[in-house]
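FORM 7B: Structural annotation worksheet

SECTION A. Query
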Amino acid sequence: MADTYRVSILGTGPLGETFDTSFWGYNGAPTTNAAANTLAGLIRDAWVTNARTAMIPMLSTQQKYTEIRLYSYPEGGPTASFIGSAPITTGTGTSGTFNATQIAMVVSLRTAMAGRRHRGRMYLPAAGLASATQHQWTQTQCDDVATAMGNFFSAVNAIGTFGAVVVLSQVGAGEWENVSEIRVDSKPDIQRRRANKLLPSFTSLHTVTNA
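SECTION B. Predicted structure
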């Protein structure tokens, strides 16, 4: 779809692992790499101000957010015409908890329209977030993330050249709706495509003796 852009929040973990969670914007897509870099920097600043405090305690000390990358599609896809980047220098995780690295907190992006095509989803890495009773996260943990992401998107929407954070339908060509609500579920989940790419650091073997 023309005049759209995808914003990726990138990071790294142990053993060369990388992660990426992203959202879409509509209206005002950058038309040069320089403009894309500028907008990526403004989005990075909004993330640091509004979301960082809630995000880095979800990462272990071996993980960190590293970059905001923006893919601009002023004429439509599938290939980005321009790419911008802004480094995150204060994104290192602070948690001493080391869960499996594929564990994620699901952030649902809701719009004013009903139906699956009008809803989005982001998977926030949560390998450092300790669960409470019943192996789920607490109300406070979920509230903190929902508030942080809501404030982050509001700040991004306030950037004069950005347009708006939207849910872009992959089914209905050209359909988009402004994100109006953030919902966070207490149940841990995984992003399966990411889990499938994880490689074990070692394998243990033991021979079984047969009579």
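SECTION C. Observations
Residues 58 and 129 are 5 Å apart (CA to CA). Residues 4-192 form one domain.

SECTION D. Sign-off
Analyst initials: ____
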